[in-house]
Amino acid sequence: MRTFAAFILIFLSSQATLAQSPVWYEGSLVLKTNEVVVGKLSVHPVHDIVLCKTEDALMVYTADKVQSFYFFDVQSNLNRKFISFQEKINAFTTHALYEVVLSGEIKVLRKLIADFADPDNHRDSYHYFVRLREEIISINKFRSKVYPHLISASGSLSRRINETGWNPNVHADIILIIDYYNREVRSKSILARN
C-alpha cells in the first residue's frame, strides 16, 4: 500500500512540474457552425482542445466543435493554421486537431507527439501526415500510398525528382515533392481558368 501511495505522490508531483501555463495568441476560430470567434487562443493539440479567451468569457472547444483556427506565432514568426478532421478508429469516430504545414490539393499536417515534447524540434516532436482526398495517411506510408498517385497525375514530377535527387523516403524531401506537385496543380488550374 505504501508503494502505491508513493507512486501516486510521485506521479502527481511530476504532473504538476510538467504542467505549464497556457501560451496565448491573438487569433480567430471558426466553429463547425461557421461562427467565427476572435480572441486570444491557446492550443493543446495532444488533447485536441482549443482555449479561447474573449472579453466576455473563457471557452474550451473540443476538436469536434472546431472547423479551423488561425493565429500569428510571434516567437516563430509564422502564421499557424489548425484544422479539425473526423477520424474512424476501429468502430469509434473521433475528431483530431492537426497543424497545416503545407496547403494545397495535397496537404501536409502534423501533430505534437506529447505535451512535454519540444515544439521547436520540428523533426522529433511531431508526427507528420499527408492528406490525400479525405484520407489522412502517415508520412511514413507516403512512398506506398501517395507517391504513386502523384507520379501518375503529374507529367513533370518524375523528371523533377530525378533532377533534384529528392528521395520519397525522406520526410524533408517528401514535403518538397508535395510542394512541387501542389504548385504544378495550381498553375494548371490558373491556366485552365484563363
Describe, in short, the structure shown.
By secondary structure, the protein is of the alpha+beta class. The protein has five helices and ten strands.
Walk me through this protein's architecture:
With 194 residues, the chain is α+β, with helices and mostly antiparallel strands. The chain contains five helices and ten strands. It has helices at residues 2-18, 142-145, 147-153, 157-164, 171-193; strands at residues 25-31, 36-44, 49-53, 58-62, 66-73, 78-89, 92-102, 107-112, 126-132, 135-138. β2 (36-44) and β3 form a beta hairpin. Residues 1-18 have low confidence and may be disordered.
* Helix and strand sequence: HEEEEEEEEEEHHHH
* Largest pleated sheet: 10 strands, antiparallel
Specify the helix fraction band.
Answer: 25-40%
Q: Which stretches of 5+ consecutive residues score pLDDT under 50?
A: 1-18
Strand content: 35-45%
Number of strands: 10
User: What is the arithmetic mean of pLDDT?
Assistant: 86
Q: Strand order of the main beta sheet, please?
A: 4-3-2-1-5-6-7-8-9-10
* Helix run count: 5
Give the overall shape. Answer: elongated
Specify Rg, calculated over alpha carbons: 20 Å
Structural class: alpha+beta
Distance between the termini: 76 Å
